[in-house]
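Proteins fold reproducibly. Next comes an illustrative record:
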Amino acid sequence: MSLHKKAVILLSGGLDSATCLAIAKNEGYELHAISFQYGQRHCYELERAKALVEKFGVQSHRVIEINLGQFGCSALTDINLDVPKNEDVIGIGNVIPITYVPARNTVFLSLALAFAETISSQDLFIGVNALDYSGYPDCRREYIEAFEKMANLATKLSVEDCQTIRIHTPLIDMTKAEIIECGLKLGVDYGMTLSCYDPYEGGVPCQKCDACLLRLKGFRENGISDPTVVPID
């Protein structure tokens, strides 16, 4: 693969997106990242995204401001709704949780697709996962396949220039432990990432939300500690 083949990576600053960034770099792509200030509860992840951009030598980075919080109905965008907390992953329910942000990945992928067209990129990377996750409907393989089909019907790049747009989901069938193992082999410093939905001041993870619990489980299954967690004496 040519070093100059461009990829757009959706980069939140969390564990999964950092691993996606490392995978795209390892595959020889010229890296272009896109992150979102979408009205979320905190912006600590965006700080981590900017640090990852520097570490991985990303060619360009867009931070897009939108306000999904104006619609409400998600604990990630509405401070009046509590983020669910549990003691372990067994407490994570089987229904779509209140941390689901309506249509978030559809909005994010649409804007990433627009960015990709402007730089003539056919390849988008997103760190969705359908195994160790909270049950969001826009993280499933059938959703990604449907979006990819739409992208190839709706863009000048595909219709006029006859370029095939691909949505890469390298983590979709991996457990959190497998994702961490993969990232470590590719040199990801997970101490630079943050996955927590509801961190304390300074971006200290709560260790009780779904994202924290699944992340902790992944590190534990690798026999190592999460580098973002400071032991309490």
About this structure: The longest strand covers residues 30-37. The chain is about 35% helix and 10% strand.
